[in-house]
Amino acid sequence: MVQISEVKDSNTRDSRTAAHTHIKGLGLDERGVAKAVEAGFVGQTEAREGAGVIVDLIKAKKMSGKAILLAGGPATGKTAIALAISQELGPKVPFVPIVGSELYSVEVKKTEALMENFRRSIGLRIKETKEVYEGEVTELTPEESENPLGGYGKTISHVIVGLKSAKGTKTLRLDPTIYESIQKEKVTIGDVMYIEANTGSVKRVGRSDAYATEFDLEAEEYVPLPKGDVHKKKEIVQDLTLHDLDVANARPQGGQDVLSMMGQLLKPKKTEITEKLRQEVNKVVQKYIDQGVAELVPGVLFIDEVHMLDIEIFTYLNRALEATIAPIVVLASNRGMTTVKGTEDIRAPHGIPPDLIDRLLIIRTLPYSVDEIRVIIEKRAKVEGLPVSPEALDKLAQEGSKTSLRYALQLLSPSGILSKTMGHASIQVSDIDEAESLFLDAKRSTKVLESTTGYL
Ligand SMILES: Nc1ncnc2c1ncn2[C@@H]1O[C@H](COP(=O)(O)OP(=O)(O)OP(=O)(O)O)[C@@H](O)[C@H]1O
Ligand SMILES: [Mg+2]
């Protein structure tokens, strides 16, 4: 029997690199037209608009099982656009970013690793009507008693929780295990939470807005006092991914005795996730969907540096895209004609075999003009908190168009440090010269190597 309880939250998404912190979205207007400078993005308008269309298609659920390729030179914003897509989709749609080379590991078969990421990028929204106790916490008192097993120390025998809703209040006397979950959710007095009557699982909804005037440094979500009675039926929406279900069902639901607890410690993945198990999970999922309890949310699997994949993975990918349940796959590559990895002589654009290329929608990213580079550097400097003089900005922009945007961006932080040690109020041209003399760009570095055959 497939169970859906005991699944951890899969919505922790942190961005892979801090290099893109200035990117906040695609920066399109309501007609989907890219504004020249918006949401941290500068230029690259066609690619952004193309990405916007794809976001719309994904939101309308018309896109599953399709693949998109972001193609363009180094540092033209491919990775940035992919991240912007994820920001546009919001936190409820799974977005799984990986780099091609991540699929190779000694422990896990590469196609297996790909399949796992596939399943991570397919969400399932489950709606259930449950009996809950919901309200603003007015009291939270653990009751202690002597440890029944003797010895010193006390144990918590009960916890008294007071809940207030718009229609009334209730005081509950709960099991200590529930107290643990309350602590895990970091519930304090003045928060709104609910407790499921059957399972005892606890969920913090937010801070009651009666407390909204308090000084609060951290961003806090304020919620109104729950309507109706404290004890009621409530529709609960849970977002998880197919991979969460696979894991929950592969792992033995361990008991509380010492032996099985040790077993869990040593072998966290006792049962492997097999194709058979996945099929079984799929069957149950399909049943839930038919019953209207669950809804499929195809998300995005982003594979950066796709030329790192080999022919075997490509073949597998092709087939996986054809499955009834598939995410949208976004690929990115900065390569031109390259030999497909794992073959001797198949040369193909971006190192992608022709049969996959055929089914791709391709978005092209173009090199930036000096002016665009200047604006991007300016934005980036602001994010990093580095003041730059206008002449120095011009210089960096020139440098960027001569070498690459990334090199110019990378010069920013060392120049900042050098300018500080020189006591400059902002980064000057001389600081950049200094940084450039310390750090080579790729072209100069190659030149040095060419002229110094002998060592290295
Ligand atoms: N149009 C843009 N507006 C603002 N910032 C940008 C833009 N394009 C790129 N950047 C920034 O420039 C840097 C390089 O871009 P990014 O990493 O997206 O390039 P890429 O196309 O993925 O390159 P590569 O092929 O080398 O992986 C990043 O810090 C990115 O945030
Ligand atoms: Mg990239």
TrEMBL record:
It is found in: Nucleus. Residues 64-367 form the AAA+ ATPase domain. It is an enzyme of class 3 (hydrolase). InterPro entries: AAA+_ATPase (IPR003593), P-loop_NTPase (IPR027417), RuvB-like (IPR027238), RuvB-like_C (IPR041048), RuvBL1/2_DNA/RNA_bd_dom (IPR042487), TIP49_P-loop (IPR010339). DNA helicase participates in several chromatin remodeling complexes, including the SWR1 and the INO80 complexes. The keyword Transit peptide does not apply. It comes from the Eukaryota. This is RuvB-like helicase.
